[in-house]
Amino acid sequence: MKTFKLICSTFLICFAFSACEKDNNIINYQDVIVSLNEYNTAPNDLLTINSVEIKENSLIINFSASGCSGDTWEIKLIDSGYIMESNPPQRNLRLSLKNVELCQAYITKELSFNIRDLQVDGNKVYLNITNSGDQILYEY
Question: Number of structural domains, the chain?
Answer without folding.
Answer: 1
